[in-house]
Amino acid sequence: MVKENCGVVGLFSLDGTNVIPMLIDSLRALQHRGQEAWGIAIPKKDPLKKLGLVSASASEFKKIAEEYSSYAAIGHVRYSTIGRSNIENAQPLKVKDLCIAHNGTISNVEELSNLVGGCTFTPQSSSDTLVVAQRLVSLMSENGKLGSALSLLKNEMIGSYCFTFLSDDNSVFAARDPKGFRPMVMGHKDQNNTYIVASESSALAAVGAKLIRDVKPGELIKFSRNGFETEMFSDDTQRAHCSFEFTYFAHPSSNMEGSNVYLARKKIGQFLAKKFPLKDADLVIPVPDSARPAALGFAQELGIPFDEGLMKDRYSKKGPLRSFIEPHQSDRIEINRWIIPITEIISDKHVIVIDDSLVRGTSSKAIIKALRRAGARKISMLITYPQIRFPCYAGIDFPSQEELATYMNGKESSLEEITEKVRNDIGADFLGYNDPENLAKAIGIPHESMCFTCFTGDYSSLGIKPTFKTRLEMKGE
Ligand code: SF4
């Protein structure tokens, strides 16, 4: 089953400006959320979809902006949480006169598909977003309005979702799931009186729009000639903002739930330093790129020199990409192979390496090996995120337990035993993880309003008790 995390955008210009150049720029500013495919949709036309990075199509931007000229449009960058990376699975999708772009994961899509007459799914060729769109269109034909359809659909659908929709009558809509798993913000560009909704405020900044506010969990916003109208399709007050967004996924410039991601990461580093005051270290280095602010905060808190001991080669084919969200293990290894240590900085030092998460252990292992080759005397690795022990069914790609570095072959184990197993596997002299309380405090969001399911295994915010499947069953690979 194809299930999406990704980045979404919706634009509506009240003064009739062609928003396609802004749409392309905003998608580029969300590229860190998905690097496999991208697409745009305007009313009364089939969506345009392309594989790879948005920038790979730069030579066509002018032509695309002319051919798809519109004052109302939505767009999408794709990162597959489940399902293969191919053009059929790229978005936006169109069902009847409704185009849809989705960030999140719908975990009960087989059930949902029965409500739309059933579909034949394979992990390679089906989409939870398509099923949602079909069900929405069918509910709208019974109830008339998107808001009423969503308030029914939310009871049938389990998962995380931020949607942008576009209808053939030139309206743009944005909806965020009742728990607020994934981020979504709205903004306005005064110069051309254009509203924008996007997964993150980095997309707003890229087009010169100012942030108005977060889209509320359970809110549906409609943009049309009348400006914007808003309604709540859910009155759920329990929140489950994804904590992983703050340590890894989101862009450092983004503001979400009242917190700036860069400052939150720096604070996470400061709080980590209180938990692990390794004062005998010579140097603190980040794993590029997301861990940089946390490493800086950590070093400043303890008064230990901060330096860049690892450089990412940005000129190789995969150099600019993020390894974790690459869909294939071989690509992740290839990216990590091009993180190169600086011997003159590392040699003969006790180095504290700060990383934003340790999921499969692929990059940690490669980095520690490289640091040893560069002559590090002692390597202490600190992870700004707690032990990831359970699959995520809310939009991040670790769908099976067996692929996680913390997997203990089903043996009941303490956190200390798990940490020791991972430390041994990756080859570090010391390994320390953050904990949810420390992390929530540093981010500044109450612990109970955040999701830590991948650490706790408590799926109650999704209302499920899952039976874990293998990656092959989930992704067909
Ligand atoms: S399970 Fe983990 S990665 Fe998934 S939404 Fe919750 S915190 Fe985020």
Descriptive notes:
The protein has 477 residues and is of the alpha+beta class. The protein folds into two domains: 3-237, Aminohydrolase, N-terminal nucleophile (Ntn) domain (Glutamine Phosphoribosylpyrophosphate, subunit 1, domain 1, 4-Layer Sandwich); 263-445, Rossmann fold, CATH 3.40.50.2020. Helix content is 30%, strand content 24%. The protein contains 16 helices and 25 strands. The strands form seven sheets. It has a seven-stranded antiparallel β-sheet. Strand 22, helix 12 and strand 23 form a beta-alpha-beta unit. Helix 8 (261-275) packs across helix 14. The longest helix is centred in the N-terminal third of the chain and has 16 residues, at 128-143. The protein is globular and about 65 Å long. The relative contact order is 0.12. The structure holds iron/sulfur cluster. Iron/sulfur cluster binds next to helix 7 and helix 15.
Key features of this structure:
477 residues; alpha+beta; Glutamine Phosphoribosylpyrophosphate, subunit 1, domain 1; Rossmann fold; 2 domains; 7-stranded antiparallel β-sheet; 6-stranded antiparallel β-sheet; 25 strands; binds iron/sulfur cluster
Secondary structure tally: strands: 25
User: What is the rounded distance between the termini?
Assistant: 12 Å
- CATH homologous superfamily grouping of the largest domain: Aminohydrolase, N-terminal nucleophile (Ntn) domain
Percent of residues in beta strands: 15-25%
List each distinct ligand once: iron/sulfur cluster
- Class computed from helices, strands and strand pairing: alpha+beta
CATH class of the largest domain, please?
A: Alpha Beta
The number of domains: 2
pLDDT below 50 for ≥5 consecutive residues: which ranges? 120-125
Radius of gyration, in Å, reads 22 Å
